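DATA SHEET
Item: assembly model
Revision: 1
Owner: S.N.
Input lines:
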Amino acid sequence: MSSTGTAAATRAEYCVVACAEAWRGAGEVLASPMGTVPTIGARLARLTFSPDLLLTDGEALLLGDVPAVGAAGRVVEGWLPYRKHLAMVAGGRRHVMMGASQLDRHGNQNISCIGDWARPDRQLLGVRGAPVNTLNNPTSYWVPRHSKRVFVERVDMVSGVGYDRAAEAAPSARRFHRIPEVVSDLGVFDFETPARTMRLRSLHPGVLLAEVREATGFELAVPDEVPRTREPSAEELRLIREVIDPKGLREREVPA
Amino acid sequence: MNDTENGTGAHAGADKVMSARDVVARLESGMTLGIGGWGSRRKPMALVRELLRSDVTDLTVVSYGGPDVGLLAAAGRIRKLVTAFATLDSIPLEPHFRAARQRGALELTELDEAMFMWGLTAAAHRLPFMPIRAGLASDVMRVNPGLRTVTSPYEDGEELVAVPALRLDAALVHVNRADRRGNGRYLGPDPYFDDLFCEAADAAYVSCEQLVDGAELLDGGAPQTLLVSRAFVDGVVEAPRGAHFTSCVPDYDRDEVFQRAYAKAAADPEAWREFTERFLSGDEDAYQAAVAAFHEEEA
């Protein structure tokens, strides 16, 4: 333990730091977080180790400052309506962290519908921008409640493209395809295996490997020694608690 | 200032002002209809409500879907929907869209958000398709078996999706200001794709918060806020609060309280009948009066 505040870090705060790490070294690109915890994570990265990140207000403005979640920014540094946002995606200057209703071991993601597409049991959002995201800019995923309902053997509708589907398609599908990581309330996962299947990268402190296996609907690649997700520094905890999320919205998305 | 004063001559040019009823009278069952805005943002809701008062049906609706899609689906007017999503934004899932899909009530052409934009762009440019990377390897290709790929004729030889043009018979959009000739101005942060919808359509109808004349249109603002050109517009309708309950900033924000009531009613057939009776059984003035009464009750 490197600092005084770490003993008190909650699961939600480990998740924030794990999400922030997705944008480490990203450079001057747009961070597009979907969900509260990734939004806090992107702002933490911008305030600490990735100061060149671009952030939006969730609509068409690029923020010149880093307001608390839910608060309006005071400084606007750019304009990013949907048409320009889509150009940023296609040009690759963006790393998005999307949600997932279903996710399989190859990183295929579904947000469209559950069941047979022709007449779904549950209609969800639709594919939205998942196809364009996954083929053009790095796409990570955030799952606030890790369960077998989300981590499934097969997704019902491939919205975001996984490594197996990209490999089977034309080389143009693989050219810019990359899924850097998946963060859940239990741990961090990646696809750094020879077969490009999902691997446990780190367990959040307090989580047992058996819990992750129990909540995952397919066999995960697990290294012999499983690292722990890193501790937040005292300064990071201060930024999360006092500057970025003083209302504690993170604890609603990931209850202690 | 009028036309005489600014030297262009009195009565020059077509006056395209009409009523919402006039617009709907020009629509026919079976048409492909584009609807501007995005999700629950700046939707031409007054025109959609007028459409609900007509017997126009069997539509192919092309929309970044919000409650426009929900209301038309609930009324059984959509034969086929072309979209990438349907959402109320602050409420992630559009309840009527969801219900219509789950009972198999409409045919769906599900495209990615970027494919949709390039389909409209192809139509606006009178091209048969636009080549893009998005869609490859996803199930968008599986559920749209008619989609084809093209191979780049250049050295790279890349295989790309040929997104077909989304040509529209008619488009409906809502903007903050417009003049009588059909020039439309938006004052919010995002134009969405309203200009493209108009350019991709054989006939386009613009509703606006406020009809203004001559120099009042730009009103000293930036010229790039003049989003829609009259060259593509066939009718202009003044419809104050015509995007309600979606947002039309800076004129008004989304009516979140009303939207919650809409979504709640949509979840139950009996509640939906009551909602329809209360809000959608009269004309536009009756709608706006019922909304005002609703807010008085809520306050």
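QC remark: The interface with chain A takes residues 38, 65, 83-87, 92-93, 97-98, 101-104, 110-115, 117, 132-140, 142-143, 149, 158-160, 189-193 of chain B (CB under 8 Å).
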